[in-house]
Structure prediction request, 1067 residues.
Amino acid sequence: MSDTLTIFEKGREGRRAFVAPELDVPEKEGLLPERFRRTEPPRLPEISEPEIVRHYVNLSKRNFDLDSGFYPLGSCTMKHNPRLHERVAALPGFARLHPLQAPERAQGALELMWNLERALSEVSGLPHVSLQPSAGSHGELAGVLLTRAYHEDRGQTRHKVLTPDTAHGTNPATVTMAGLEVVKVGTNADGGVDLDDLRAKADEDVALLMLTNPNTLGLFDPNIEEIAKIVHDVGAILYYDGANLNAVMGRTRPGDMGFDIVHFNLHKTFTQPHGGGGPGSGPIAVSDRIQPYLMVPRVVRRDGGFDLDEDAPKAIGRLRGFQGNFGTFVRSYAYIRSLGAEGLQDASEVAVLNANYLLARLRQECGDLLPVAFGELCMHEFCLSGAPMKRELQIKTLDLAKRLLDHGFHPPTVYFPLLVDEALLVEPTETETKETLDEFAEAVGKILAEAREDPEVARNAPYDTPVRRLDEAGAAKRPVIRQPLP
Amino acid sequence: MADASYPDDLLYHAEHDWVRLDGDTATFGITWFAQDALGEVVFFDPPEVGSSVTAGESYAEVESVKAVSDVIAPLSGEIVEVNTALGDDPEKINEDPYGDGWLVKVKLSDPSEKDSLLDQAAYVQTLE
Amino acid sequence: MSRYTAVTPDDLREMLATIGVGSIDELFDRQIPAGVRLGRRFDLPAGMPEQAVYEHLRDLAGQNTSTEDEVTFLGAGMYDTYVPAIVDMLMERSEFLTPYTPYQPEISQGGLQVMFEYQTAISELTALPVSNASVYEGPSAVGAAGYLAKLANGRSKLVASAGLHPHSRETLRTMATGYDMEVVEVPLRDGVTAADAWASAIDADTSAVFVQQPNFLGAVEDVEALMTAAKDSPAVCVAQVDPLTLGILKPPGECGVDVAVGEGQQLGNRLDYGGPSFGFFAATEAYLRRMPGRIAGETRDVDGKRGFVLTLQTREQHIRREKATSNICTAQALNALGGVVYLSWLGRRGIVELGELLLQRTAYAREALTALDGVEALHEQPVVREFALKLDAPVERVIARCQEQGVNPGLALDDDGLLVALSERRPRADIDRLADVLGTAVAAERRRVEVSA
Prediction:
């Protein structure tokens, strides 16, 4: 089979799909001075509609996806994306609603946003919500900027943000973008925050501690109340990265753990489809003392209806245009109304059940070669170390992951968190059946057995995929990031 | 480079950088251990000729596909030459870390700083 | 068990036995300390079957006036463009809708090649060699360009034309307080950036300059002249551009722009009450390693086959962490797919034809409306698809009257201004209707004011 072609290498001069509407007004000359005019049209494809359809449909078949198979990516919560949500998101009253439509004529949209805010408030245990941020890291940026505003309003300039060394990369990147300095807090032997290290580093120059609980090892920190006290005692704010919220719905709430600011990932816990890299949404919920600084516009109740309010003198401003990724609100709201209080709790309970079951099965299949990094039980995800496997079988976590592709599974997250050597972070989610978990555990067992016979097989995997291992070093050394055109 | 090697005519800094002395100028690079940990090097961003470096501080970065590493200056001074051949062939850092993979040449401001560097045996011991 | 989980009592029994615990409660109680347990059900309504959820959402949707319900001339950053059916079909496919970011490239060649094609399309549109695979949307892309400039040259001042969309200016300010930079705004004169004020605002401490093309009031700016004025400073030259005008307007890459950003909603995406859409981000070669966001690159596999991977990842948060070019992780990949499919569908001729059509109809609309009593142009600059008027009547009341007649005339501006936008969905008949309805509304409001005076 010959090499794949981009759409720019298909079609032919003169072909077209779009036909412009007829010019129905008198044509005028000289509307645009020549010096402002483009002289050569952009070299977009010249191609017919059937060719476009065939090209992209065929491309789609070179993609593994969640509807097709198991996707135990730790830290990503790849749970089923209900199709009802696509149907309601496509309703013209939502899909064709202009963001600047007068609020009186967008009451359905505003009511949806209000209801979603109240639901997220209940789930998090914090009273005030902004749906504005477009993704988790966008919510983190909001959180750090809100924290700065909070301290500055009290005449304090604090420079430091504490993050555990297991933190997702977006946490430290966000801190720098928000003008503060990252200070790492160590992890103890049980996989939780090292309290002594935290006490040593928590001083009045600390603005914020950013944490996720359970953490990126899938472990719930039993010392969370003490952590909150240490942070609050020095006047700092506590931020919850909501990436792992799927573990705790109905059982505990970040607000009750002592967090002041929480972000949600609607594209994780609340079923917004990942889309191959977005769109997502990262709404935040905050406590009373952070509320004055929340972004504008804010959804408010007024005169028996809803409105958008920009009158908030202490607000930090806005972090994007319009109201946020409204289409994701529709889907998440539909999910919350479908499941209700009981269903959301069930989701977390089964997520934790499935993770513990898969961990137990993997222990049975290969517990000495892929031991869990910390702990006995886990929450919704667990982290294994491939270091013993590497020593004994001469294959790395990367090789195991690539060989799993040949078995029709998306591999777990690899080499994260950085704390664990040859890390493999596994999150099955609640929408998988016991049979799928069994199949996965057995596949891992088979791959290890095969490696014992011949490690080269995994080292050169995958074999059954549209392409095999790719030269990533070459792509970075001599980047080619667009199709060259004659 | 296949096997670990640490030439005995060089001096070493604990952060995996080597020094070749030549009177009051020195050549810096990263050791076999550092290039092995990084994997295939894809990019070296050299500092400007004429800029100064301070012993113990980072003066550049070396990148592989999945990692970025600070390069630490073992000694202080002014950069007089950078290895521009690495622009096209950064993999020289892997293939010949002590030869063609050299990074910068520096006119030393305080040659006595070399006394706090490690010799080959002492450096190899830190790797255990 | 709920609709999306499948644990039967038998499953539960077997799974608990394998794990070695007696109940689900035990799994939680052994890990969550008593002091933080919720101990009650969420105070939320009970779940509903699919049909009931559908009907509830349909009722909420029915309370909104969409572009199906009125003839709209509302623009200001998002526009009522026609989205072809093939875009919907492709964006709904499981293989594009449900996968994660392509961390395992061997099984993500579809998504990675789409990114590569999208990057090519944006590069062509903007005439800049380097594009990323998308950012969230327009205004935050402007803010991200400010951060790029800060990391590139370390200066502390950002100079922004008042012609930038208000959301872009506000987002830039909010983000700039984060990375500790000052934003200086340059006013408009006669509808475009005041050239002398612009030149005197730029100095050796300017990190970046920002202009919008066409600007917020729809006016075509002399971008080349504005960028030239910044050439002796260290400033990164940034332009926020309307992508649908790039078939006929000189592209940013030919105007001395270093970084071009913009709102991608019009390219194959829905209005969706403001999102999700996508932002595009393109630059000169010099800024390749400072770009935020994902970038797909071409390479070969071990068998020599052509393939694509995420590349230059050392810029990004998951590797460079606190020194990353941005904190962005999830972007807008699915919406960018819509964008590149749309641009392929428009094609090389189509984007020019669309631009010419908008140019002519916008001129016709401006002429028709400024001929009305009590309506004048706010500026006389060349316009392509949007223009600003000044009304001799309270604009909010005028808009309300028009909407009662099923026509949305545009966005209210300060001092009784009105911003009117054209999309290809507004034929001459709609424009004539607008003139009629607006003329009547303005006249009625002027009479009302006279009477009460």
Summary: DSSP finds 15 helices and twelve strands in chain A. Chain A touches chain C through 203 residues (CB under 8 Å). The two ends of chain A are 25 Å apart (CA to CA). Chain A has three domains: 1-60, 84-338, 341-472.
